[in-house]
């Protein structure tokens, strides 16, 4: 069985009620649920939450809430892997035979079903424990600088001061939309950013973290520019 697991706790502080805040006409979590549905890969799409309102919204868009997430996995410091591991443990205890589990973030309105499918095929083809999307940095990280409290500048890699940007290695970062994984990888706590993972590449215009009100505003502008007719 292939299962999509969408973590969506209720205690967001920087953007209150972030996981069900309206984005492009829908609660933002609905975009993730719909992408999972449109991929036609999943036998079950579940939301793991500690919040009754989030649970009701998720159900209204076709996701399942087979359990409520315990408080000890719902605070500001809980990492993703333990949350997904807990969901897998509950499902397995209820008799589900899980082949792969895809963690899909609730605040990923640019997520596309075709990318979910592409990453799944990468996972299977490369026989890895994880697969997830990455994108390139818009500026060479090797030319990056740090700034102290007085405004003084120092390069992280001064040896690259005179290196042409086209001669520097391309660098990538996690997109923060979704992560395919095997049950063993999730349950063992295997690090995602390791040689246990493979990746697919997304264009930068489909990538936007949403952690602050400024991020949200930028994402709305990007989404309107990309998807409004």
Please provide the count of β strands: 11
CATH homology-level superfamily? Spore Coat Polysaccharide Biosynthesis Protein SpsA, Chain A
- Give the class-level CATH name: Alpha Beta
What share of the residues does DSSP label as strand, in percent?
A: 15-25%
User: Helicity, in percent?
Assistant: 25-40%
Given helix and strand content, the structural type is alpha/beta
Round the mean pLDDT to the nearest integer and report it.
Answer: 95
Tally of distinct domains: 1
Task: Give the radius of gyration.
Answer: 19 Å
Architecture, CATH level 2?
Answer: Alpha-Beta Complex
The termini sit apart by: 38 Å
Order of helices and strands: EEEHEHHEHEEEEEHEH
CATH fold-level label:
Spore Coat Polysaccharide Biosynthesis Protein SpsA, Chain A
Uncertain segments of ≥5 residues (pLDDT<50)?
none
Number of helices: 6
Coarse morphology: globular
- Summarize the main sheet: 7 strands, mixed
Structure in words:
The chain is an alpha/beta fold. The chain has a single domain (2-132, 175-227), classed as Spore Coat Polysaccharide Biosynthesis Protein SpsA, Chain A (Alpha-Beta Complex). It contains six helices and eleven strands. It has helices spanning 28-39, 52-60, 80-93, 113-125, 183-188, 213-227; strands at residues 2-7, 22-23, 26-27, 44-48, 100-104, 130-136, 145-147, 153-155, 172-174, 178-181, 197-201. Strands 1, 4, 5, 6, 9, 10 and 11 form a seven-stranded mixed β-sheet that branches. A hairpin with a 5-residue loop joins strand 7 and strand 8 (153-155). Helix 1 crosses helix 4 (113-125). The longest helix is centred in the last third of the chain and has 15 residues, at 213-227. The chain starts with a strand and ends with a helix. The model has no long low-confidence stretch (mean pLDDT 95).
